[in-house]
Amino acid sequence: MQVSITSHREPEPLNFEGFERLALFALKLEAAPELSELSIALVDEEEMAHLNEQYRGIAGPTDVLSFGCDDPCVAGGDEPITLGDVIIAPTVALRQAAELGTTIEAELNLLLVHGILHLLGYDHEADDDAAAMQARETVVLDAYAAE
Fold first, then answer.
1. Domains of the chain and CATH, by start
2. Which one of 43, 71, 72, 96 is most buried, counting C-beta atoms within 10 A?
3. pTM for the predicted model, two decimal places
């Protein structure tokens, strides 16, 4: 499994190693194909607002967006399966962490797992689906914390 992380923010104060470890852990726990790749991008609020408007028709920034790979996602031979992209706005996460009384690290970890689960087929449009996704987020984060 391959995870690439890029930042569109300068300077970038976040620890990429911790993010990469969590992403790999979540992918393995969710039985993602061994030959798969995931891209994570950290963006500022302006870029996130642009993406949110362009792809969801919603004005303003959001915390996390996931973009699954368009078909075909599978390359031939030993080429990895591209799962897609998880885009996170850390400054939005920082505000949410303060509102929820949690740490920025915990909020970012939740957003990363949330984005990965979207790429693996989870959704939260219906209440039942939202409950299942939230429960799975908790399982992944608790297992990672116990690691």
1. 2-146 (3.40.390.30)
2. 43
3. 0.91
